[in-house]
Amino acid sequence: MLRIRLTDSWISRLGYAYATAVGFTWGFLLSTGPLERREGLWVFRGMPSWAFRRGGSCVGGCYLTDRNAGARVLRHEAVHKRQWQRYGMLFPILYLAAGFDPLKNRFEIEAGLEDGGYLRRRR
User: Fold this and answer.
1) C-beta separation of 100 from 53 below 8 A
2) Which residue spans traverse the membrane (predicted)?
3) Which pTM does this prediction carry?
């Protein structure tokens, strides 16, 4: 029997590449800030607030934000990049199914709620 593996496969990597191309295009067209390569992400700053959710959005290997690009946030977004690589175009569907409450969303929990700014940093 032929089994098609959808996660961590060439299919998911193809979806990741497509999402990165979409994110890069979106960032290139709308960003007014500098383009940087940090934590393995293409970081587009100066995006209009309607172009992303919360403090910023990771689309494939691109992080789109207005100015929220500190080291902790980028560490959080780098985990989302890996999730895109693992799940490809299934990732947005799985993310939506996990819900918009970051405290219950398994993808936000995996990326780190403190680094993502959803919880206060413990001392």
Assistant:
1) no
2) 15-35
3) 0.92
